[in-house]
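Hi! If you just cloned this repository, the fastest way to understand the data is to look at a raw example. We've pasted two of them here, unedited. The first protein comes first, obviously.
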Amino acid sequence: MNADYQDVTGALKVALAGRLDTEGVGDVELGFSARVATSAVPVIVDLSAVEFLASLGVRMFIATGRVLAAKGGKLILFAPTEEVLDIIETMGLDEILPVAADEAAALALAHG
């Protein structure tokens, strides 16, 4: 699992690649949580290269999203594959965090 962080148009973009399973979450969770939770701008997370999302990955997003929300921030997921979107919807993550179709839609939600 890889995580790439980039500043884009008043937001922090995190591009994740690989499997967010036990091993993958272990690879990125500490850095992701630390970097995202301390962000002073909205955070958009690119899921287009995420092959699988396990419950630990969902937990990571919920926990980080709650920390950001408590500080008045936003965490927005975008561009999940069909398989990952199915998991997001089945687990109800889309009822807790916004999920956008693409980066432009995620940025619109971030600044809306």
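Ok, and the second one:
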Amino acid sequence: MAATDYYKALGVPEGASAGDIKKAYRKLARQFHPDANPGDPVAEDRFKEISAAYQVLSDPEKRRQYDQMRRFGTGMGGFGTGAPGGQPGGWQRIDLEDFGGLGGLGGLGDLFASIFGGGAARTRGPAASQRRSGPDRHVTVGVSFPVAARGGQISVTLPLEAECPECKGSGAEPGTSAEPCPQCSGTGQISLVQGGFSVQRPCPRCYGRGVLIKNPCRECGGDGSVTRRRRVKVRIPAGIEDGEKIRLRGKGEPGVSGGPPGDLYLSIQIKPDRFFRRDGLDIHCTVPISAVQAMLGTRIRVRTVHDKKVELAIPAGTQGGTRFKLKGQGITKSGKTGDQFVEITITVPEELSDEERAMVEELGQRSSFKE
């Protein structure tokens, strides 16, 4: 049987994101689903092919192993190309003896056995639980500079996985049911015995689910979950740094076979601010004043990250570049509070009226303003 390139089967490049893979699969699944093409064996075979491709490429660990196999150039049939009674796409068993005795630590056969769970395998007992926690989800979230500095609550809308409303998470088309996997006796795991050691591996036939779905749900393609936009409230701690992560327990992807959901990790990306700059716990800003204010002195109100304004006295004769400190107006974190530093710049008008020009020229003639 010719090997199938799963990336080509879904029409995506090797570096495709998980979202692009899911999008491509769902488009093709709707196009070639047996219900949409009754009596068409070509469409049925194509549906099996894309289903098998998606089951591998949508799982990070299986995808890594599959990419490793492709680099060895041994073909792509080992991840599901049509064996009776399997998942859509099935599972083509690899005769590991064909790869043994090639040198190294037991030849490539040992490597393939560790990757695909083949070799001298025996099934675990049927009492093993199939409940598995859902995978964690990692998302980058933008936070404004003031909120990151003082802390607060924000709401973000994220595309997250949720239980499929059609199949209720079973993955099977409504009106049908999944069947226990005969290879692992419904446990989802097999024991790989090598060199006196027993290593547990996900069952290669059911991909660790413990069941075989002959009629995948049209809505979710057999995943048991669909992508939905969810609004999540997030508490941002004061003084959080750019790149820090916030963990929301139980807000990740749905679990398998009734297992608990994974966690949601939010990587914080602090948006640049036009006024504030941060240096540790200290805040820096620049405030312009006029030349007259600098010469005569003035009082200005300066905005802080604490959503208020503080009055600052500018003495007469202040030079451009002078810095003033607003004590305790910086960031508070771990019991320590920084300061806010205000740098003064002096602005000069680009145009003057005739009267203003005359006054400046007269001022310039006085001895204190001469070079």
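That's it. A detail worth noticing about the second one: The chain has eight helices and 18 strands.
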